[in-house]
Specification:
Enzyme class: transferase
Subcellular location: Cytoplasm
CATH superfamily of the largest domain: HUPs
Distance between the termini: 55 Å
Shape: globular
Helix content: 10-25%
EC number: 2.8.1.13
Protein name: tRNA-specific 2-thiouridylase MnmA
CATH topology of the largest domain: Rossmann fold
CATH architecture of the largest domain: 3-Layer(aba) Sandwich
Strand order of the largest sheet: 12-15-14-13-16-17
Family: Belongs to the MnmA/TRMU family.
Number of domains: 3
Structural class: alpha/beta
Length: 376
């Protein structure tokens, strides 16, 4: 099988490429240039797409003896990930750019280009597993399922929850059965210079980790009130888009609470440019509404209900949930989902993603459009 190995310049993608080669595939290494003006050296563990990263990926490819190319996808990344991120915050939502990157770049733009050039599949260094099962109704008689990795601490099935069945059929994740320490040891044994290279962290295009500062530069300052649930003004902010539900630090409130309790952002409204803060008990929600559905297999029928697990953050807990597939306009495929969590969860904001699991299997995902509390 002819496989494109996406090589970021890190240790995970290096070992993934090596394992695909060991498995007998014809492998070509590809580094995605996602920054329109890549820096020479990474500024921190958060950065990516530097000239250093491309060089590290090339050295691994040379050691493996495989062809290596750099594909420029900076414009596509800017439009589909960075600008989407800015639009979502401007609208008062809290997006996850890693999911959007996987959906739009690594398993859409990259995979589409690979297929157009005659390749059969793409391999990445994500920590997840693919299981194959005989199924007469599936293409080629084999059904592929996406499952959690064996290393709970590194499991990345959450950010892969946007893959559909066709993309999953052409994707390989060779690291899912291995822990991170084992991957680093394997890289050392293979003589890869990246064996001790630190992991990068999202958000990759905000190298210093200052999301509010980044948004202020892109969206501008727009002073407005910070109020309590009764509307009393407690302080001022520089733009509601710079705040997210559950945030406690950096509020700069001028009026302390009478009982000395901590205050958190409980909602934002970019239309009125208002940030509402309140006590911790106001943060808990157990009802989620979701749209922009992505199914890692056959979509469930509209109108059905399922007992599934729901995960709301990349490395967060999985919560038992009852998931209802909202009726569509007659297509038979759900137009949205309602997720009723078994317990209340703090700090859930519109724009985040909920990924649904059946055991270790990823069923699909949805973008959260609203939250609330189910009637007792």
């Amino acid at each position: 099988m002819r496989v494109v190995a996406a090589m970021s310049g890190g240790v995970d993608s290096a070992v993934a490429a090596a394992r695909m080669l060991d498995a007998g595939h014809e492998v070509v290494g590809v580094h995605l240039a996602l920054a329109q003006s890549a820096s020479t050296l990474r500024e921190s563990a958060r950065g990516c797409c530097t000239i250093e990263d491309a060089g590290d990926a090339r050295r691994v490819a040379d050691r493996l003896g495989i062809p290596f190319y750099v594909w420029d996808m900076a414009q596509r990344f800017r439009e589909d990930v960075v600008e989407d991120f800015e639009r979502e915050y401007a609208a008062g939502r809290t997006p996850n750019p890693c999911l959007r990157c996987n959906e739009k770049i690594k398993f859409a733009a990259l995979l589409d280009k690979a297929l157009a050039l005659g390749f059969d599949a793409v391999a990445t260094g994500h920590y997840a597993q693919v299981e194959e099962h005989d199924d007469a109704d599936a293409p080629g008689g084999v059904r592929r399922e996406l499952h959690r990795a064996v290393d709970d601490a590194k499991d990345q099935s959450y950010v892969l929850g946007v893959l559909d069945a066709d993309q999953l059929a052409r994707s390989f994740f060779p690291l899912g059965d291995t822990t991170k320490p084992q991957i680093r040891e394997e890289a050392r044994e293979r003589g890869f210079s990246v064996a001790k290279k630190p992991d990068s962290h999202d958000i990759c295009f905000i190298a210093d980790g200052d999301t509010r500062g980044y948004l202020a530069k892109r969206l501008g300052e727009r002073p407005g009130p910070i109020v309590d649930p009764d509307g009393e003004v407690l302080g001022e902010h520089g733009g509601a888009h710079g705040y997210t539900v559950g945030q406690r630090r950096g509020l700069g409130l001028k009026v302390p609470p009478a009982d000395g309790s901590k205050r958190y952002v409980v909602s934002t409204d970019t239309r009125t440019n208002t940030v509402v803060v309140g006590p911790e008990e106001l943060l808990g929600v157990d009802l989620l509404e979701g749209e922009h559905l992505r199914w890692c297999g056959t979509p469930p029928a509209a109108g059905t209900e399922m007992e599934l697990g729901a995960q709301i953050r990349a490395h967060g807990r999985e919560y038992p949930a009852r998931v209802s597939m909202r009726e569509d306009a007659g297509e038979g495929i759900p137009a949205g989902v309602t997720v009723r969590l078994a317990e209340r969860v703090r700090g859930v904001a519109p724009g985040q993603s909920v990924v649904l699991y059946d055991g270790t299997r990823v069923v699909g995902s949805a973008t959260i459009t609203g939250t609330g509390r189910a009637a007792c």
